[in-house]
Amino acid sequence: MDFSSTRNIEMHMRIHTGKRPHECSACDKGFSTNSNLNRNTIIHTGERTHKCSICDKGFSQKGHLRSHMRIHTGERPYKCSICDIGFSQKGDLRSHMRIHAGEQPHKCSICDEGFSRSSRLNLHMKNHTGEHPHKCSICDKGFSHSRSLKLHMRIHTGEGPHKCSICDKGFSQKGHFRSHMRIHTGERPHKCSICDKGFSQKGHLRLHMRIHTGEHPYKCSICDKGFSQKGDLKLHMTIHTGERPYKCSICDKGFSQKGHLRSHMRIHTGERPHKCSICDKGFSQKGQLRSHMRIHTGEKPHKCSICDKCFSHSSSLKLHMRIHTGEGPHKCSICEKGFSQKGRFRSHMRIHTGERPHKCSICEKGFSQKGHLRSHMRIHTGERPYKCSICDKGFSQKGGLKLHLRIHTGEQPHKCSICDEGFSRSSRLNLHMKNHTGEQPHKCSICDKCFSHSSSLKLHMRIHTGERPHKCSICDKGFSQKGQLRSHMRIHTGERPHKCSICDKGFSQKGHLRSHMRIHTGERPHKCSICDKGFSQKGQLRSHMRIHTGEQPHKCSICDKCFSHSSSLKLHMRIHTGERPHKCSICDKGFSQKGQLRSHMRIHTGEQPHKCSICDKGFSQKGDLKLHLRIHTGE
Question: How far apart are CA 186 and CA 197, in angstroms?
């Protein structure tokens, strides 16, 4: 190397010899040149003689001022020859070039980690030493670097010097500002090497990579549960500590997360900022909107691994899994019964407490569950939203429709374990079982008659009280049972919904159809215990028994004559009243009995259905045939 003077050679030789003749009187540090000593002295004196003409900031060295001016001018004279990125300082370009070269010349003597800059190594060393020399004067928090303290102070001062030119939002750190700008530009420069998903921040990519690697570096010291993010661990710890630092200013309710408080505040404000693009329904939380959208799309991404049933929400799948596992984590402290859902447990507790918080606004009746109140309100409104797809009959409750459909399908899933008879409802099976056990726990206080069911006793009591609450809207006749009113209404409407499958004859009541079917089958299940005669109907057997007992309970109020049947008394009364309701359509003659009219009609038609088995002579009436037979028998 050539030098222009002896002094220059001498100065240069100090690089090789390490000679530093100029010593600082303040810190005892040595320097090879006087100018370097002067620069060091300015550090101690705090003198900043070089001022910026734009922002008036002072610098101890002229070179520092020159570098600073590039912030205002935007000048970046030092260009990278590989990626063409520009830098305001030569040192920054040198550090940047190490990214391309992969060069990390500054090595940690403890853990051997490499760094491209000595400043980063110095910061890293403080991780090993635990040194935090820079203290915050407000909260006393310590920092390993002065710059970290400077950034921290902006929390207390609220300073946000880095402003967004689009939305005017301020940021305390330049990096935060750069990340924010990507919201506006949509830039996602950090790509996942596995699924190619893009992220606006490098930290977000790092967190995302843990999905692929399954890494959970943050462990709970109490339950050892692992988390991919530090923030998730912090939130999890509040479960163990019970800490709820975020308080609602209106109702004083506490929350472990700030976001939960924000969502809660919308209950008070009624704010629903998340709108459905299809039906315009609003939601207070974004997650609720996502769940709602699955109603429109029909998406059910959560699948049961056992029965393959799909659900739109993970929570629904979790509850469903308890059907397979039999898990009932919510235990009643009174009766020890377990429930898979917290809501069902709460409803169950009201059985013990008798609490009925849901009141009807019309009749003030209370209910333990909101759903029961909704069903009850349909009594007042007459609403029947559940329609049968076969006969279009409406029901106020979904369960009612489900049971009704079994009429059409013939399904009887509830089987008696003794006689194998099937029932469409479990309640009907329970009643049926009392036939086998003979159990009749419900006793009438007037006549001591016992019943297997409380509802049967209630209906029976109306015999004693004469109560007939179900009134016909046409003739005002009253009935003790709703079913009786329905049957009666068919007299007015002429409706006969129960059809015979053999002769197609229609009946207004199911019981009448059953009795009619015995004509076709010849079945006579009701046997007389005295003469063993069979009858198709129970009432016929009762009437027959009066032949053996001689009982005639039906008495005429005029002549005191007694009859074994009410129908016989009714016909007898027409003798006293002269009533002849059955009229001949040809000659207008009246008859008290329908049978008499039929016999009379044969005069007009000439019909002789009763034939003599000996001479084949015909007669219009059975009595005439009987008289004729005496000619042959000589009786």
Answer: 13
Radius of gyration for the chain, computed over Cα atoms and rounded to the nearest angstrom:
50
Which has the closest alpha carbon to 64: 37, 91, 45? 91
CB neighbour list of residue 407: distance below 8 Å, 6 or more residues apart:
424
| 3-state percent helix, strand, coil for the chain, nearest multiple of 5 | 45, 15, 45
Whole-model pTM: value is 0.31
- DSSP characters over 276-290: -TTT--EESSHHHHH
Alpha-carbon distance 59 to 66, whole Å? 10
Q: Which of 489, 487, 484 has its CA nearest to residue 472?
A: 489
CA distance 325 to 304: 12
How many CB atoms sit inside 10 A of residue 171's CB?
A: 19
Mind giving me the DSSP string for 315-341?
HHHHHHHHHHH----EE-TTT--EESS
* Cβ contact 319:328 at 8 Å: no
Q: What is the pLDDT of residue 248?
A: 92
d(CA 377, CA 320): 30
What lies within 8 Å, CB to CB, of 434 at 6+ separation is 440, 452, 453
Strands annotated E in 258-333: 274-275, 282-283, 302-303, 310-311, 330-331
pLDDT tens string 56-65 = 888 878 888 8
Burial of 566 (0-12, 13-18, 19+ CB in 10 A): exposed
399: its two tokens: 């369960």
What's 616-635 look like in SS3? CCEECCHHHHHHHHHHHHCC
CB neighbour list of residue 246: distance below 8 Å, 6 or more residues apart = 254, 255, 256, 257, 258, 260, 261
What six digits make up the tokens of 533? 């005669």
Beta-bridge partners for 358: 367
Q: Regarding predicted confidence, which is higher, 110 or 275?
A: 275
Cβ neighbour number for residue 396 with a 10 Å cutoff: 19
Return the closest-CA partner of residue 564 out of 545, 551, 573: 551
Q: Can you say whether the dihedral through the CA atoms of 70, 72, 73, 79 is positive or negative? A: positive
The closest of 458, 453, 460 to 437, measured between CA atoms, is: 453
Q: Check residue 239 and report its DSSP letter.
A: H
Three-class DSSP labels, 141-163: CEECCHHHHHHHHHHHHCCCCEE
Longest dimension (CA), the chain: 180
* Alpha carbon 634 to its chain's center: 91
Rounded to a whole number of angstroms, the distance between the first and last alpha carbons of the chain is 169
Distance of CA 395 to the CA centre of its chain: 23
How many whole angstroms separate alpha carbon 452 and alpha carbon 435? 8
Residue written as token pair 């063993």: 532
Cα distances (angstroms) measured from residue 281 to each of 260, 269, 290, 385: 21, 17, 12, 22
Please tell me the predicted confidence (pLDDT) of residue 1.
65
Q: Which of 322, 329, 320 is nearest to 302 (CA)?
A: 320
DSSP string, 392-461: --EESSHHHHHHHHHHHH----EE-TTT--EESSHHHHHHHHHHHH----EE-TTT--EESSHHHHHHHH
Please say whether the beta carbons of 88 and 78 come within 8 A: yes
* Backbone dihedral region for residue 131 (phi beyond 0: left; psi -120 to 50: alpha; all else: beta): beta
What does the chain come to in residues? 635
* Mean pLDDT of all residues in 219-245: 88
Q: What backbone torsions phi and psi does residue 235 show, to the nearest 5 degrees?
A: -65, -40
Q: Which residues pair with 58 in a beta bridge?
A: 51
| pLDDT of 235 over the 80 cut | yes
